[in-house]
Design goal:
single chain, alpha+beta, 2 domains, two-stranded antiparallel ribbon, 27% helix, 16% strand
């Protein structure tokens, strides 16, 4: 098996993937800045019936179960590094599903 350093095709592929990953991260950051869902985590939901949803145009909203797509105007704080956030409806700590 050839080492990566001796395989220019593999090196080119790895470099191309690295550039693509960097560009994807920049696009996700830009999407978030404009209120769009970057699809970089699971949607949050709480036992009280409040949950995140994504509109057809990509906006991240919060609705109640059974009334998907109807924004109630609340927002979950962005999850922390452990994937935890707080429900804007009841205050319960919720976490992203893996």
């Amino acid at each position: 098996m050839k080492s990566m350093a001796k395989n220019p095709d593999l090196n080119s592929l790895v470099a191309a993937i690295a550039r693509l990953a960097h560009r994807t991260a920049k696009l996700q950051k830009l999407a978030k800045k404009h209120g769009l869902f970057a699809n970089d985590r699971e949607l949050l939901e709480c036992r009280c019936g409040v949950e995140e949803d994504v509109t057809a145009d990509g906006r991240l909203i919060v609705c109640r179960k059974g009334a998907e797509g109807l924004d109630v105007g609340l927002r979950f704080p962005e999850p922390d590094k452990r994937g935890k956030s707080r429900c804007p409806g009841c205050g319960r700590v919720v976490e992203c599903k893996e």
